Amino acid sequence: FKQKTAYEIYQCDWSSDVCSSDLGKAFGGVALGMTSRRLNNMSGERPHFVNALNGLAGGDLVPVPGGVIIRDANKKILGSIGVSGDTSDNDEAAAVDAIKKAGLVADTGA
Fold it and tell me: What is the pTM of this model?
């Protein structure tokens, strides 16, 4: 996997590429065990803490809804998914739908 520059993304077929905002939304789920919605809420309550977390993560966190944790039936974290391209709430809804269609449990942190 090679992360693309904005120019490369602009020049490519969006249907087959991963954007950095998708990865940033998913990253919090894997790295911190919390959804991007929870990070978003936390950024309003404790902005300095979320800023510090993002600094430790090399600026890779995108703390807006759209990053959803994927769990199995026993609530064990399997991974996370990040979706971008619409409003953050719609991105999150698309992620939840995809997880449910795969027969897994979506954790939005709500």
Answer: 0.75
